[in-house]
Amino acid sequence: MKQFIYIWLGITLLCVVSCYDDKGNYDYHDINEVTFGDVKTTYNVLLNIDTLKIDALVEMSSGDKTDASRFHYAWIISPINTSNQKDTISTERVLNYFISLVPNTYDLYLKIWDKKTDVHWKKKFTVIVGTPYSRGLMLAGEDKNGNVDLQMISMAGVDTVVVRNILQNSGLPALRGPIAFFHTGKQNEEYKQVWVLSETGSYYLDRETLKGSELNLFEDFCMEKYNEPMVPIVMAPEAKSADGNIDGHRVVVCSNGYLFYTGLNFISYGTFSFPLNYLQDDLNKYIPASKYIFGNYISDYTSNYLYIKSTQMYHIFYKYLYLCV
Length: 325
Prior knowledge:
Blueprint: H1 2-18, E1 34-35, E2 42-46, E3 51-54, E4 59-60, E5 71-79, E6 87-90, E7 95-98, E8 104-114, E9 119-130, E10 136-142, E11 148-154, E12 161-163, E13 178-183, E14 194-198, E15 201-205, E16 232-236, E17 249-254, E18 259-263, E19 278-279, E20 282-286, E21 289-295, E22 307-310, E23 314-317, E24 320-324
Parallel strand pairs: 2-9
Antiparallel strand pairs: 1-4, 3-7, 5-6, 5-8, 8-9, 10-11, 11-12, 13-14, 14-15, 16-17, 17-18, 19-20, 21-24, 22-23, 23-24
């Protein structure tokens, strides 16, 4: 009897479903299909030199791809494998972007939104930003206003280019009296530095971007605190070969005549202790060093600078002669 009831209920349910008035919307529309052309997906560019230009050759099955009222484009970039540092660098269909990014590898996405159908598409690119400051000639002079002007003949890319107005957006104050603009040479990574020396201030810069701040001072490398600014006006040694190799030491003369020395090794870690030209019997007095350092750049350097003698006229170290005033 129960089996008969179940069969009867099943037949009744089918009848109800078959008699239901289906009022669904079956008015279908074709979805706009977007395709991207055969374009490069990896780009190598140089900071402050290159302009990144990409036309993804977008094609659509419906609509005009240039119709800004319907289609929204966004070029979004972020350091590779980092999703929380995204930046929209353009909202144009064709990208034309002057490279101002810190040297790194980046993920770049072109995202397209069809406002009419609310459908989204995206295409991924890889952008490798390098520094133009890794190889070339560094120049220091004055601009038309008498301020320090830094330039570089960069040989880091395919072409040799001149990078001008380096200090313009460097983060440093206006400087006067250019002295030098140089790389300290081929050493261990933690000791490589780029310096700009001037009569009104000397600062170290980031090696990849040549940017800095008013806080990038020589005092950052000093073990002691001083009551007056320590402004380097000369550093040694300089590179002795085409590949940039130098000795593993550093000597600095400051504008006030203080003479500093350090070893670039795990013992001193490139930090400077008391000035070397203090008098041995009175640490409150010192013989001011001149702004000139004479060195032997032909023969190989020894592992240490040895103090030999101190007179009223000279401080002499092995391989270097420091003229004092």
